[in-house]
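ARCHIVE CARD
Drawer: 12
Card no.: 0347
Subject: one protein chain, sequence and derived structure
Cross-reference: see card 0346
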Amino acid sequence: MQDDTTIRSSGPPEEHYALDIEGVLTEVWDERLDGWQLLQLPGQHTRISGYVRDQSELYGVIAAVRNMGLTLLRVEQIKDEYQVRGETL
């Protein structure tokens, strides 16, 4: 039996995305976001970041945010890991 990492590596390449959300999310939301990382941003905002295999999966994450009653502020594809942490070089 293959583990999840092996299965993912044999599929299409994954893209890294960050979604900025209005409000401060706690660890309770982390369980509902299926492994996406939470980062608290200044101004009572939260950035969630994670990997998706395709646009359909990204739309599923966006729909989940909507279904949780959260306000989506921005969606961004991450090319540089500094973007995830909100840093600028």
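Annotation on reverse: Confidence is low (pLDDT under 50) at residues 1-10. The helical segments are 4-10, 27-32, 55-67, 81-84.
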